[in-house]
Design brief:
alpha/beta, Rossmann fold, single chain, 6 helices, 44% helix
Length: 194
Amino acid sequence: MEVERLWHNCSGGLLRNIRGRLRSCHIYIDNYEFADGEPLNIVAHSHGGNVVKIATYFLNRNIDNLVNLGTPENFDLPDINSRAVNNYCSVSSVTDLIQVSGAAVWQLYSIAEDTWWAGYYSVASIYYALQGDWWDAWYSAQLAGTYAYDLQSWYLSTKLDPYANNVLLESGRHSDLHRADTWNQIKGACGLPQ
């Protein structure tokens, strides 16, 4: 499996190498001396969640609970090895645009294209209605709605993981997802011990 991917860290402007982080993650876990019955619980934020998802193919131990906070669902990366995780929860905020920006290029292109066409046909619908051309106004409104629906689907494709118990919050920034009040809000929905 090729995991040689470089990511741009927007906050510091540095390139991150997922292969190096992946190696560090799985070596640390594989070398850790677990006590009898001690669970392996991982909470990952942003692209750190993608590193853990890839690491599930290499770990010598199952993850008991994995919670990804604001992890971009990137179609260019492999899915999680669901056999290696007992409980997997993905937490996202609808308003988190940083999470969206970490998606695959073609996901972002589809979002941009559908946004443009939804706007174009919305304006065309208004224009035709003002001209009294009700048929073209209706048809343009239908096209605008179709593109808006597709836009919503692509947008949510950057947030919802088909292999996870997904928790979608109505508000919050990317950095808000690891605050204590958010954690208390999602513990039950993620199936975590209270």
